[in-house]
Amino acid sequence: MRRRWRDALVLAAVAAVALAAALDALRPRSSEPGPSAGLPPAAAPKRVALRGSPETAFLPSCDPARLALAIEAGPTLALRYAGGRCQLAGLDLVAVVRDAAGAVVYRGPATERHAFARNLAGRQKVEAPLLQRALRCGPPALFAVVVRGGGLAARGTIRCREGS
Length: 164
Known about the structure:
The chain has 164 residues and is an alpha+beta fold. It has one helix at residues 2-26, and strands at residues 67-72, 76-88, 94-98, 104-109, 118-129, 141-149, 152-160. The strands form 2 sheets. A 4-stranded antiparallel sheet has the order 4-3-6-7, with no helix packed on it. It has a 3-stranded antiparallel sheet with strand order 1-2-5, with no helix packed on it. Strand 3 (94-98) and strand 4 form a beta hairpin.
């Protein structure tokens, strides 16, 4: 007899919860916009760096033996990688530029800060502008460039055109 009362009580509780859910679903809602209505959507970031992300924190640092640095047309600094997944920390690449007489005309950052800070995997090539806005040119000339940092080095020549 007690068991039947308990069963009836449980059934009544379930029916009460179902009735409350049905009434809540039928209740009219306000059609007024929320507090963010009328505001323009936020602009998406141009670059999202995953540094410090828990999803990538487990990745090991990239082995410098699997990295190659090269100066290419543009002028562009190219970084090639072949290997497993890894994190490439900021390399702090420094460029030394010499004119035809061998005089140093520029010594400083080769690329913008964190240009190569990213995660790499497989065969990959990453590029960044070399000496962007750093070199002021006069008449057309060739310059010798040496870039070093993070255990890597690259040599090459860049053509400086008037007005660039």
